[in-house]
Design brief:
3 copies of one chain form a homotrimer. Helices cover 25% and strands 38% of the residues of chain A. Chain A has 3 helices and 8 strands. Chain A has helices at 20-30, 56-69, 86-95, and strands at residues 2-10, 15-18, 35-41, 46-52, 99-105, 108-109, 115-121, 128-137. In chain A, strands 1-8-3-5-6 form a 5-stranded antiparallel sheet, covered by helices on one side. A 3-stranded antiparallel sheet of chain A has the order 2-7-4, with helices on both faces. The first copy, chain A, is elongated and about 50 Å long. The relative contact order of chain A is 0.39. At the A-B interface, β4, α2 and β5 of A face α3 and β8 of B.
């Protein structure tokens, strides 16, 4: 059985957005008991991430890490058509994930206690982000 | 057909642990001839990796690389609740993989000659790590 | 329904190779309307990537980024059996992707407008690279 839907997320610019609730709702709606949930973000300047979901400082530290090694406006980058955060957004994207697959059991994603599902917007400006959700199983 | 099981791995602290044998055993036990094997680690401070399986110096070099750019105790990090290796473990985790999907044929994972499946423990102390294994196919 | 095939790509050494056309052809050939397409590269010194497909400077910038932080011949690396680009190729590989899963609808991969599917060869010399393609669905 295959269930397919999409999430459209309006971001307020660079930062992380917790999708765990949205994904859990879609998995429950799919009616699929056991199988896999696949998330795919249709962009190359925003990505998906499973990360610690309890302490907001983790997200701040992740941003600090990315900013240290992939600073906006780095003169190394030639691709600046959309501004100083254009190429850094692509690099952040390829170093994290465009797709995630999560096991499903009892109509729920089998996440660990501290695992949250995040959209990571890498552009400074707000964007509309589209995520294709597929639940496959029995 | 869906087969589901779990691996529980007791680590001795930071380092890599070869799971290839464990995964091959579960794939054979699943009875699935052709399909996919999915591995999911239920943690945010340990990860999964496909890597060269012949020369132990590769693993030492990977640790050296991570330690250079994500050193324990980096003053950039505010999230230090569990010690100087807490936030570095989350960063190492998001830069590698929480889930892997491998093609299955003839009841075996179709790995290349030099590919091994590894759990990478990023915390310094020993931990119990749980990996959900799903084999899906015909 | 499961469709399985392989792509064999002869690279000319380090750089990116657009596989989008090859993958779209195989997905169409599979006859599968709705489901998932999985790509798996059977190597640890070449990887897969979804990335911006319009401006060739993006690929040049990605190479510049990797070369800055993972330079060939770095004295930190002990694993140099196959030359100064041997260990850097493994590091680049673990920081990107060995497998990708893409949603399929109407017999096509549901890629965003700017997303292309790339093989990234990390070794300096030409290599033969093998990619297992699985399409699963209805």
């Amino acid at each position: 059985m295959i269930f397919r839907d999409e999430l459209c997320i309006a971001t307020n610019g660079r930062g992380t957005y917790d999708l765990s609730g949205n994904v859990h709702q879609l998995v429950a709606a799919s009616g699929i008991e056991t199988g896999m949930c696949h998330l795919f973000i249709c962009h190359t300047s925003a990505s998906l991430m499973l990360c610690e979901n309890a302490d907001p400082e983790v997200m701040r530290d992740l941003e600090a890490f990315m900013s240290r090694y992939i600073p906006d406006g780095d003169p190394m980058f030639a691709h600046t058509a959309e501004g100083p955060d254009d190429m850094p957004a692509h690099v952040r994207s390829i170093l994290t994930h465009t797709d995630l697959t999560l096991p499903v059991s009892d109509k729920k994603c089998m996440l660990g206690t501290w695992q949250g599902i995040y959209l990571w917007e890498h552009r400074l400006a707000p964007h509309q982000r589209r995520i294709v959700v597929t639940v496959q199983g029995e």
